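Hey, can you fold this one?
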Amino acid sequence: MNYELIMSKIELLSPAKNLECGIAAINHGADAVYIGASQFGARAAAGNSLEDIATLVQYAHQFRVKVLVALNTVLTDEQLPDAEKLIWDIYNAGADALIIQDMGILKLNLPPIAIHASTQTDNRTVEKVRFLQDVGFSRVVLARELTLDQITEISSQTDVELEAFIHGALCVSYSGQCYMSEANCGRSANRGQCAQYCRLPYQLLDADDNILVKNKHLLSLKDLDQSDSLEEMIKAGVTSFKIEGRLKDVDYVKNITSFYRQKLDAILAENNNYQRASAGRTTILFEPNPEKSFRRNATDYFLHGRKKDIIQPDTPKSLGEPIGKVTYIGRNFFEVQNGSLLNNGDGLCFINKHGDLTGFRVNRVERKQIFPAEMPKITDGVMLYRNQDQAFEKILKGKTAERKVGVKIHFDEIESGFALQLTDEDGISSIFEVVCDKQPAQKPEAVNDNIKNQLSKLGNTIYEATDVDIEINAPWFFPASQLGEWRRQAIEQLDEVRSNAYIREVKREAIAADFSQKQLSYLGNVTNKLAEQFYLEHGVEDIKPGFEVKAEEGVPLMFCKHCIKSSMGWCPKEGYKATFKEPLFLRNNDQVYQLSFDCKACEMRISKA
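Sure. Predicted structure:
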């Protein structure tokens, strides 16, 4: 199946914590944004009102940008009626699609809105993706752990849109398959309330209680960065490229969206088989740099196979961009490689001799000498990172991008007056006619330049004139104010025509399909009767309740492709002969977890000890 021909539209999908972030994402080049509604989103702290969603939709659709709304938590029976009402409200607000996890939603009385399968539905296999396709999902968000070969295999055997994460925080467990937070404190990751036990420091113990690793963040992954693999992912079948970050601020959205917009534009410019999924030309007015936004270093995770260095063991916090090593320490200053890059007010950090992250503020910079506000306990040779760039943050507070839709202008003379035809880059056209008297111009040689100059003044609109064509029978007199008013009215008319021409995708037609399993354990995340009914209708015979309904004892709480033994160089498949006794355990204060390893599947599981 040739996806370069069938799926030619390539989408950059950016996060929106709120309306401000959503508009910033659009201005900086997003083809789609995803945002949480007032409830039922997998980021409980990132809810938004229907009014704000409607405002975002109105702004987005001018650029043919889609607005996707996340309702990707599991629901109780009592919540389903509220969810149904909310979905209708979201549809009436103009949203383009819903991102969901709970299959019970498919049994509700839904509007004809497109449905996307959240990564929380654990989408790792051809069978799972094909099933979701068949039951009515228009798009499937792939598991972050997939390799290029696995993505290619899925895309070659399905015809549903595939979305993949390319940047941001990583969950150590397969999404939708983590129950540690729910088990420990009743805050369910499947209900948007994860307490992030994966970011805590742990001791690694063997079966004899020997400490193999002391107080390291052994489950805290680096942040994802697939910026060097975008074209490979397109060829593998991905059409939507997703930036994680519905809890991130507007500066992050501006910087990271701009960075990937430039990356994708370069690819699109070199290949006629691909086209941008939205309208308009984005001009970035600064130099994006992902190292200057929050991130825990960077990894391409498993896209090109397993690597050992996918965790950031010393800290779960953002290190920022590497600056250089300390070369000299004075009484109240120090010198560092590349110190000239630093500015007054910058935030710096380093890993101290105890393995802890230490941060401090730069008071002033004099040539290569750095004077901190308070001198840290630092030693020669320590690597310094900048996790707050004062000058860069100042740039981001100003205007950092401009997005314009190209429009061709044709000014024509008609019998009763004149006609102004505007045609946007998608071929949508509007003709504004004016009835007026015609008076000869006193300076005929300046008429065409005057018309072109006045009609091209589109600066306070979303449009830019790419061509102005004039056809008049004689050099008539046109006051600048009159041309300006005609232009304004013609633009208003084009806005209305383009708005009416916008077509939302409808829900995909479902066909008969059986689920690949006859039995569903707690891993099916079935938390309401409609979800249970859904699976029964699709061939499942035995359904256990989800962990949030009935917490089973002794079952794994995390399922991870990340393997601590592999990261430590202890993989038996690579010939390592263990010098410690298994099973291994993780301990944080009074919390103890047992590790088990499925070496055939190359997976690690974590259970309460």
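Residues 28 and 254 are 6 Å apart (CA to CA). Let me know if you want another pass with a different chain boundary.
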